[in-house]
Amino acid sequence: MILGLDIGRQFVKAVLLEKTRGGTKVLNTGIRLVPEQHKAYDPELIGKPLWVMAVKELMREMKINPKRVKNLVTGLNGTNVSVKQITTMDMPEDELFSSMTFEARKHIPMDGSDAIIDFQVFGPNPKEVDKIDVGLVACTKKVSNAHIDLLKEVGFRPGIVDTDPIAITNAFGNANEFPEEGAIVLLDIGSVSSSLVVWGRKDQFFTRDIPIGGYHFISDLSEKRDIDYIAAEDEIMKNGISSFQNGASTDLSDIAVAERNVFDNLVEDLRRSLRYYAKTTNQSFFTKIMLSGGGSSTHGLQGMIENKLSLSTVLFDPFQTLAGYEKLELSNPNQYAVATGLAIRGGLGK
């Protein structure tokens, strides 16, 4: 059995998978709120004690003993980790390691500790002779150690540590074929940020952390409507993006500004990222946008992204091709994309 554990800023999610002769079977899923329930959520107050408590409670609910988990996969996310495709000169592996370590320092916030890297050679660069494309993942030792310490405090024996963008990619790749032509766009909307992945069979692997998430939807509504956080959260859950039109204010320009500050900002960040990708790779054919993460189910957001970017936009269900899914009763399966991708990573090569 393989446990994929997604430790987020607001929720902890877990997916338990089993490799079978016929493929992969989902055995169980679980979700647990990290902050105290029925109180205004402040991401700055979330730290190790709350994470440890939430993970322990989730494992208890799922009837999983952390000490008995033999195949655990967790993920790092946000600006503390960098996932990039690098084009470099073809060189021996020891030289490539030194080159990638140097490259990593450009992309992660250094905190006084050494950079930890992992890389995979994708193959020759199709456009430049004597150059290769390399997938690089990097974080600092301090970030890695803090993550490992958290897992040990829960009682786990730390296993594979992946990253959210790669997990989302693995979840998609397990359930779908990447297009022969063009690139797919994956957007996982979390609590305080969103992970963007753009990739095609013949195209560059691109990731970006967009600093907008479900928390910002709620906090902005709370500010613009002058209501408390809990009331704003209830409003967003009930009415989605139209919540900004339900206020008492009669100033339509205020309402328009409020909308631009959250949902339109997310769409504009996405638009800029796709323009950058098109400019740097000469690939401007995006086949589809796949939405996942807790914030992706915000009512009206899917249609808004599709209309403003003129791209087919759908919610991504990571369980759709897994055996055992029919026994799950999940109202929002797309929020499990990262946890599912992590668990799938643990089964690769088995």
SSE layout and pairings?
Blueprint: E1 2-7, E2 11-20, E3 23-33, H1 48-61, E4 72-76, E5 82-89, H2 93-104, E6 115-124, E7 131-140, H3 141-154, E8 160-163, H4 164-175, E9 183-189, E10 194-199, E11 206-210, H5 214-225, H6 229-239, H7 252-281, E12 286-292, H8 301-309, E13 313-315, H9 337-347
Parallel strand pairs: 1-4, 4-8, 9-12, 12-13
Antiparallel strand pairs: 1-2, 2-3, 5-7, 6-7, 9-10, 10-11
Helix pairs in contact: 1-3, 4-9, 5-6, 5-7
Domain module tally: 1
Strand arrangement across the biggest beta sheet: 3-2-1-4-8
CATH topology name, in short, is: Nucleotidyltransferase, domain 5
Determine the mean pLDDT. Answer: 90
* CA-based shape: globular
| C-alpha termini separation | 11 Å
Question: Which descriptors apply to this entry?
Answer:
350 residues, single chain, five-stranded mixed beta sheet, 26% strand, alpha/beta, Nucleotidyltransferase, domain 5
Structure notes:
- The chain is an alpha/beta fold and 350 residues long.
- The protein has a single domain (2-217, 261-347), classed as Nucleotidyltransferase, domain 5, CATH 3.30.420.
- Helix content is 36%, strand content 26%.
- It is built from 9 helices and 13 strands.
- It has helices at residues 48-61, 93-104, 141-154, 164-175, 214-225, 229-239, 252-281, 301-309, 337-347; strands at residues 2-7, 11-20, 23-33, 72-76, 82-89, 115-124, 131-140, 160-163, 183-189, 194-199, 206-210, 286-292, 313-315.
- The strands form 3 sheets. It has a 5-stranded mixed beta sheet with strand order 3-2-1-4-8. A 5-stranded mixed beta sheet has the order 11-10-9-12-13, with helices on both faces. Strands 5-7-6 form a 3-stranded antiparallel beta sheet.
- A hairpin with a 3-residue loop joins strand 1 (2-7) and strand 2.
- Helix 1 (48-61) packs across helix 3 (141-154) and helix 5 runs antiparallel to helix 7.
- It is globular and about 60 Å long.
